[in-house]
Amino acid sequence: MDEFALIRRYFAADVVRRDDVVTGIGDDGAVLAAPGPDALVVVADTLVAGVHFPETAPPESIGHKALAVNLSDIAAMGAEPAWATLCLTMPAADESWLEPFAAGFRNLAHHHGVALVGGDSTRGPRTVTVQVIGHVPPSAALRRGGARAGDLVCVSGTLGDAALGLASIQGSTRFDESCRQTLERRLHWPEARVSLGIAMRGIASAAIDISDGLMADLGHIVEAGGHLGAVVDVDELPLSHCYRTVLERVGLAPALAGGDDYELCLAVPAARLDDARHAAREAGAVALTVIGRFVDDFRGIRLEPAGRPFDTPDQRGWRHF
Ligand code: ADP
Ligand code: MG
């Protein structure tokens, strides 16, 4: 199969149709109609085999995850996703890999109404780079730097499940069959909190998606906020039922420092908490949990209650270099 047949068969077929795509896959560039008065939000993320996913990961989940991690960045900006590009490097045009990979990508693209408008296909070590372009009213974009002392630290969903999914795959933590499936699914099939991000426009004062672990990503909000600290009550961390079955054995490190959850961490002014909860419910989004508050008497993150023994998680999160 040559390159063009491959593109036609797996990527140009059954893309989401959008009126704002003037020219999609097949020309030298995509022509996209600007989205009215909105500002564009552009994100990109690369997944490298052996670094971001094991070579043995199900190809359908790789297609899903490559798009999902980008949609998570779009969600953290409060933006609505519209278009995507896909740059795919692979050792061979292996149809038994391409078919499920493309299906995983396409199904999620359809779910979010995102049109694949271009990309590149090359031979080499397996690497997937996706770019997503979305839009948001310029003043409504959620940024990392907007948190203020007195705001509440809120997170969506539950924390640490993806890290436990990885521990399950690696055999370092054992679960019953139903939790094993649930947790490995959270690792391989992350859900981007797009509707929640949009619902938080005009309510949250800052947002980030938790890709590198709560401590690392909340740390970015604190750093971007200037002279800002965060106090996190570890008894309030939202843990799933499956996490609780191993809590005594694994402690809180997966929830505090585990990556790949793709939940949102938000700063919400205390007076807007009810609005935030209401908007999240209206959007059909996962529940928000208040886990702490922002303060201005120190910089960084403090875990409470003081004096309780914690496994000290690596606060820096994953670093490539
Ligand atoms: P060029 O030689 O101009 O770089 P290519 O042969 O790389 O063009 O690609 C031809 C068309 O197919 C372009 O419109 C490009 O955007 C699109 N394309 C190539 N690879 C992919 C892919 N993996 N997914 C989606 N579109 C792709
Ligand atoms: Mg090309």
Structural class: alpha+beta
Instruction: Give me the side-by-side strand order of the main sheet.
Output: 8-10-7-11-9-12
Count of DSSP H/I helices: 11
The termini sit apart by 37 Å
Low-confidence stretches: none
Shape descriptor reads globular
How much helix, percentage-wise, in residues? 25-40%
Mean pLDDT across residues: 94
How many beta-strand runs? 12
Query: Beta-sheet strand percentage?
Result: 15-25%
Q: Which molecules other than protein and nucleic acid are bound?
A: adenosine-5'-diphosphate, magnesium ion
Instruction: Give the ordered list of helices and strands.
Output: HEEEHEHEEEHHHEHEHHHEHEE
Q: Cα-atom Rg, whole angstroms?
A: 20 Å
Main sheet overview = 6 strands, mixed
Give a written overview of the molecule.
The protein has helices at residues 3-12, 59-76, 95-112, 161-170, 177-188, 194-199, 214-224, 241-244, 247-250, 253-257, 273-282; strands at 21-23, 31-32, 39-48, 80-90, 115-123, 127-136, 152-156, 206-210, 229-233, 263-268, 288-295, 300-304. With 321 residues, it is an alpha+beta fold. The protein has a six-stranded mixed β-sheet, with helices on both faces. The protein has a four-stranded mixed β-sheet with strand order 3-6-4-5. The mean pLDDT is 94. Adenosine-5'-diphosphate is lined by residues 7, 11, 25-28, 86, 88, 116, 118-121.
